[in-house]
Design brief:
The chain is mainly α and 233 residues long. Helix content is 41%, strand content 6%. The protein has a three-stranded parallel beta sheet, with helices on one face. Helix 2 packs parallel to helix 4 (67-87) and helix 4 (67-87) packs parallel to helix 5.
């Protein structure tokens, strides 16, 4: 159940596996905020594992402008999907959270133990609270029903397929096609001062990042040049 950016990357990886049959549904056909629609989807398909990347996402301006949308939608999506997966007997589920779940002034790099130990960054609090609720919901299904439902926290993402809206996206995609002069505006909120995630567990498993920032920016810009601005709000 993918969102635009990270979900499409997951789909590409899963599609490359011969032992995997991928089942997806676009938002136009399946609204994950509608419980009856989600339960019908699980009834109509035989599903062994769920990868829940879907969410309403955006930058500081979008969340500050539409806090209800970001809290309401992101509460309902994991609630509906996790509950329906459990009712359908799905034993394995992966829920994607966000680095914004950690306190604004969390020690760097941020690890799992920092969760719920301090005040959240106000500019993304609605989104963060919804993600925390999803994490605790899947933990509760594990504890009460013995499910194997897990959460992972991706870093702030950018790249091909991103939302390039000039106001409602994050910093990198918002600047990718910008052709004017940059002026620092101190009246705008800063967001969290730093968000560095602890990847020591991944490193211990043999994972290492293979793309640096310069190459990543180049690839993101090339995608923008080929496809044009994506003005999803």
């Amino acid at each position: 159940m993918p969102a635009w950016l990270v979900g499409s990357a997951l789909c590409r990886q899963l599609e490359s596996r011969a032992d995997c049959t991928l089942i997806t549904s676009p938002h136009a056909e399946l609204n994950l905020t509608r419980q009856t629609a989600v339960e019908a989807f699980f009834t109509d398909h035989t599903i062994d594992e769920v990868y829940l990347a879907a969410a309403k996402v955006g930058g500081i301006h979008a969340i500050s402008s539409y806090p209800v949308d970001f809290l309401y939608d992101n509460l309902l999506i994991p609630a509906n999907v996790i509950h329906a997966a459990h009712r359908a007997g799905v034993q394995k589920l992966l829920f994607l959270g966000s680095s914004c779940i950690y306190p604004r002034m969390a020690a760097q790099p941020m690890g799992e133990g920092a969760l719920l130990t301090g005040v959240l960054e106000p500019t993304n609090e609605p989104y963060a609270i919804a993600k925390i609720a999803g994490i605790k919901l899947r933990e509760s299904y594990n504890r009460q029903h013995g499910r194997d439902y897990r959460s992972v926290m991706p870093t702030n993402l950018y790249g091909p397929g991103d939302n390039y809206h000039p106001e409602n996206s994050h910093v990198i995609p918002a600047l990718t096609g910008f052709g004017g002069r940059l002026v620092f505006d101190s009246s705008k909120p800063d967001g969290a001062p730093r968000k560095l995630l602890d990847v020591s567990k991944l490193a211990a498993m043999g994972w290492q990042a293979t793309m640096g920032l310069e190459d990543g920016l180049r690839e993101a810009y090339a995608w923008f040049r080929e496809h044009g601005p994506d003005t999803r709000s």
